[in-house]
Amino acid sequence: MSRWLDNLTVLSQWDDDGAPHPMRTLRPRANARASQDPLGAEAALAPIDASSLRLAGTIGEGGMGVVRAATQVSLGREVAVKMVRPGQDRPEARRKVLHEGLITGALEHPNVVPVHDLRQDDEGRPLIVLKRIEGVPWSELIGHPERVRERFEATDVEDWHGRVLLQVCNAVAFAHARGVLHRDLKPENVMIGSFGEVYLLDWGLAVALPGCAIERIPRASDPRGVAGTPAYMAPEQVHTELPLGVQTDVWLLGAVLYEIVTGHPPYRAQEGLTGEQAVADVLRQAREGAVTVPDVLPGPLQQLLRRSLCVDTTQRYPSVEAFRLELRRGLDLRQAGRLREEADRLLEGLLERLAEERPEPREILARLGAVRFAYRRVLQDWPDNERVRKSLDRALSAVARWHLAQGEVAAADVLLAEVSAPEPALATAVGLAREEDRARLDRLRHAEDQAAGVRTRSFVISLMGGLWTVGLPLQVLAGHWPPTWTEIALSSVGLFALGLGLGFWARDSLSRSIVNRQTRYIIALAPFLYGLSGLAAWKLGLPPDRAPILASFAYASMCGIQLRFGEMALLPPTLAFLAVFLGGIWWPATVPWALSLANLVFAVTLLRRGWTHLREAWEERWGSR
Questions:
Q1: Closest CA to 547 of 522, 529, 525
Q2: Does 614 lie in the same domain as 544?
Q3: In the chain, N or C: fewer CB atoms in 10 Å?
Q4: Structure confidence at residue 169 as a pLDDT band (50, 70, 90)
């Protein structure tokens, strides 16, 4: 192990002069080819102009570079300037700054810090003019959920970190599309802006993949030493004889995800080891690819980690985009799992309310709406989750059963139609209730059908109405007015018998609907009321001509009762009979003619209820002749 670590030291060097540490970046040691100026000559860089760029204090420093605040005078905006750190003015340091400036400037992407310019200072050292970012390294947020909640108002911290990683994936996928491999992906190299912006930093180890359009940067196939951060490295970064490719960055993204879900990077030195010994232990683990994925992780995340952290590069995701899509699906499923738990709580609350003796209907429907929305939202992200589908079916079936118990068959039927696998007993009960409801509606429709028996009804009304209308005027013209008690009795009995006879003759037709039954009732009741009025007048010692006056009041009452039940068509005859009664009190002689006219109004009113249907029946019977 010691000899191998010595060889490693020869091939690579730390990014600064600090003590070796698994979380610090290793970079290939300079060689004749690598130490060349990527631009061809540093003199090609324009010198910094103090009138256009005013440098200020230091923002931060690390490795061989330092970042200072500055003002771009022409635009009056604050920028950041990255340059070689004082005391580190070596060819490797200059090359690193130039290298990073070239690559970062070529990658124009929302998740890559924009490069405004590439210059050199008064001493010929290169510097990069960058967008100034107010933020914090991602590494300072992982493991500190309270800071994430406080600073970014995140309710689900792990999901928030996962969404940050999605944006990092976007930057890496874009770099791969331009033929650039990052090689040093880790939370420390990701900056989170004050408003949640995500920037992937430090492209100093980036190399060109085959087909890269960016010139003058090292190729992945060039001779190299170990490069990257030991705690996150892919096995091929330690096995320098193995080729690098996009799957190397896929591993590093998986390593970052590993730290998100476990709180630490994939490799950690054994307890008690420090310095070079700790680094050697971590590099040994990286060389073997010895990453243990915890079994307690959710299924999608566990599968994502196992595949991205696979030693065999051919078994990893073929691209960062494939990794990103799987990560997004895993995050969506995780969020769906949380929503499912909330939906389960809502379902239990719904079932508790349904178990009450008299639950409030509005509350039941509101709770069902919330349960249905929650489960359907879960199924959008997790369509093959049978447990969720069964839970939704359970909620719908329970409320359908409640509707059925309330006699609300249509509502139960609608809910049952949404159930993916209805219970046979419930489906049968709803089906039977639906048939009963349909039969009841058919009976009601037939009962309200004014076209049923319209010809028979019209004949009976015309016959009886004609007799009521002409009967009294004929008595007057025949000299039989005022009538005797015998004549009143005989006419009452005769009309009553005729009404009964017609009712028996047309019993089938006059039983089909409500209006027909009303007609049968009227043709029997009117003569009966006339006879009853005569009996009352005789008993009270009134003259016989007062009997029709009392009968008109009885007729008005008979029609008026129907008004109470919505038969407003009977209002004209009701008023006509009432007028006969009041007029007959003062002018008895007018009663025969007035009552005859009122009878005519009554008969016409009854006929009009089926007039349209009578005309259709007439046209059907005689129209073709």
A1: 529
A2: yes
A3: C
A4: very high
63-89 mean pLDDT: 84
Of the candidates 58, 199, 61, 63, the residue with the CA atom closest to the CA atom of residue 133: 199
Angstrom distance (rounded) from CA 549 to CA 576: 12
Sign of the Cα torsion 601, 606, 609, 611 reads negative
Same domain assignment for residues 89 and 14: no
Q: How far is CA 558 from CA 258, 376, 575, in A?
A: 89, 59, 12
**Is omega for the bond preceding 318 within 30 degrees of 0, making it cis?**
no
Q: Which residue matches tokens 């209820």?
A: 609
Residues 590-606 pLDDT 10s? 888 888 898 888 888 87
Residue 83 near residue 121, CB atoms below 8 Å = yes
Quote the domain boundaries for residue 410: 327-446
pLDDT of residue 513: 75
- How far apart are the C-alpha atoms of 99 and 184, rounded to whole Å? 14
In a 3-state reduction of DSSP, which class is residue 77? strand
Q: pLDDT band for position 265 (50/70/90)? A: very high
In the block, residue with structure tokens 């590069």: 313
Tell me how far apart the 2 most distant CA atoms of the chain are, in Å: 148
CA 373 to CA 390: how far, in whole Å? 15
Domain count across the chain? 4
Query: With bands split at pLDDT 50, 70 and 90, how would you rate the model's confidence at 198?
Result: very high
**DSSP-H helix ranges across 540-586:** 547-564, 571-586
pTM more than 0.70: no
10 Å CB burial of residue 274 (0-12, 13-18, 19+) is exposed
Nearest to 165 by CA among 187, 147, 143: 187
pLDDT at 32: 39
418 and 469 in a single domain? The answer is: no
Whether residues 485 and 609 fall in one domain: yes
Measured distance CA(494)–CA(26) in Å, rounded: 123
Q: What percent of the chain has pLDDT over 90?
A: 25
Determine the Cα–Cα distance for residues 495 and 604; give it in Å rounded to an integer.
Answer: 19
From CA 64, how far away is CA 83, in angstroms rounded? 9
Same domain, residue pair 163 and 307: yes
Pick the last residue of a domain from 81, 99, 132: 132
Q: Following DSSP, what letter does each residue of 425-462 receive, concatenated? A: HHHHHHHHHHHHHHHHHHHHHHHT-TTTTHHHHHHHHH
